[in-house]
Design a protein that fits this description.
By secondary structure, the chain is of the alpha/beta class. It has a single domain, classed as Rossmann fold. The chain is 46% helix and 22% strand. Strands 3-2-4-5-1-6-7 form a seven-stranded mixed beta sheet, with helices on both faces.
Length: 173
């Protein structure tokens, strides 16, 4: 199986994760799931539990909110398909640890480097946050801007890019 990078973006609850998991299943082989979410409250804990249940036992799951580039390097060559869900949660985790946009961009570039070097196909999921209203505060605008830059860089590196809306994936690259 050739190593490919697949990037799936779209709005919240648009069907990104379901499509990514189906794509990984269709690609076949041994699958790893890299989850960046943290159960910081009961609602998020319930979401994480539902995702785990939906995936079943066909996946080996790794939960890593910050050191994703390092984890991808460790997983490289061990799995046919690695699904990373999601980049925007990872970005918010990184932003919670630094106020520096330059540091966030450096971490993003390191992650993209690890994705490009990864042996095995990678499926990357991210929210497209720039389609709504302009955020009303500087932190939210900074997040939107950094997420947009990250998504552009990942899309450039990807072999295939999909945008999901209402549960329907649209191939855009």
């Amino acid at each position: 199986m050739p190593n490919k990078i697949y990037f799936i973006t779209g709005g919240a609850r648009s069907g990104k994760s379901a499509f990514a998991e189906k794509l990984a299943k269709d690609l076949g082989g041994k699958r790893a799931y890299v989850a960046t979410a943290q159960a910081l409250d009961a609602e998020m804990a319930a979401r994480i539990a539902k995702h785990r249940q939906d995936r079943g036992t066909a996946w080996e799951t790794f939960e890593e909110p910050l050191a994703v580039a390092e984890l991808l390097r460790k997983l490289s060559g061990r799995y046919d398909v690695t699904l990373l869900d999601c980049l925007t949660l990872w970005l918010s985790n990184v932003m919670a640890h630094t106020d520096s946009a330059a540091a966030v961009i450096t971490r993003s570039d390191e992650l993209i480097g690890a994705i490009k070097e990864h042996r095995g196909s990678c499926i990357l999921v991210s929210n497209e946050v720039g389609l709504g209203i302009v955020p009303d505060n500087p932190l939210a605008r900074k997040f939107r801007d950094l997420a947009g830059m990250l998504n552009q860089k990942v899309a450039l590196a990807a072999d295939e890019v999909y945008f999901t809306a209402a549960g329907i994936p649209l191939k855009i690259k």
